[in-house]
Design brief:
Elements lengths: L34 H26 L2 E6 L14 E6 L20 E2 L14 E2 L9 E7 L14 E6 L5 H6 L7 E9 L8 E7 L4 H9 L3 E5 L4
Antiparallel strand pairs: 1-2, 3-4, 5-8, 6-7, 6-9, 7-8
Length: about 230
């Protein structure tokens, strides 16, 4: 008797389970704030606010003083048109002339070269009329050794001594005579050049200006600052 075997199909595998979707949260994870960082931020904000208040206060705490609108040379008379108003913060190290005293400055003589923007002080000017009034002005190119180390100022009384390089007359006669000299008043002094030489403008009598101009052209003059009084 023949035995019939039924064809058995292989068992089918069960379908894999589909993973369930993760829950979606609307809230992002919150970071924990550090107290030190928060305190530092508050401190910086407070410092910035104080700085702003201080700057506003300083901006409003300014006083009007006198400054120069352009350059004024030593010996020149200060005119009203030379002055301009400047706003500065009060400073004990400075002593600028306030605007309400501008009339005290106009008409005086500049004591030194005053560049544009200079704050005017009482020491910036001299009393009286220009020292060159009624006199001739001669410029002397003086090198180191021909004038005192102390800086000359407008109004200084000086003696201009003739110092020739070769005194042939004295050598021939065998005698030593006193050098010629001319009395003068300083009108202005320039800034030193690269070699330290300066130009000194001096006021002298009209009878002395030709001789002084000759001495100056030969470089044979020495400036002597006279004693005060």
């Amino acid at each position: 008797m023949a035995t019939t075997f039924a064809n058995k199909k292989p068992a089918e595998k069960a379908p894999a389970a589909t993973p369930s979707p993760l829950p979606i949260s609307q809230d992002a994870p919150r970071r924990r704030r550090r107290p030190v960082v928060v305190s530092a931020g508050l401190a910086l904000a407070a410092a910035g606010a104080l700085l702003a208040v201080w700057q506003v206060d300083e901006a409003g705490n300014r006083v009007p003083v006198i400054a120069l609108a352009h350059d004024v040379k030593a010996g020149q008379t200060v005119k009203k048109s030379d002055l301009v108003v400047a706003q500065i913060a009060p400073d004990t190290a400075l002593a600028p002339v306030p605007v309400n005293r501008s009339s005290d400055i106009v008409g005086k003589t500049a004591a030194a070269d005053l560049p544009k923007g200079t704050l005017i002080t009482d020491a910036s000017v001299h009393e009286g009329t220009p020292v060159a009034k009624g006199r001739d002005t001669v410029g002397i190119l003086a090198k180191p050794g021909q004038l005192p180390a102390q800086r000359l100022r407008t109004g200084d009384a000086i003696a201009l001594v003739h110092t020739p390089q070769d005194d042939t007359e004295a050598a021939k006669s065998g005698t030593q005579k006193a050098p010629d000299s001319i009395s003068a008043v300083v009108v202005g002094v320039s800034s030193p050049d690269a070699n330290g030489a300066v130009v000194v403008d001096v006021a002298v009598a009209g009878t002395d200006s030709p001789s002084l101009a000759t001495w100056t052209a030969r470089g044979a003059v020495t400036v002597v600052l006279k004693a005060a009084g």
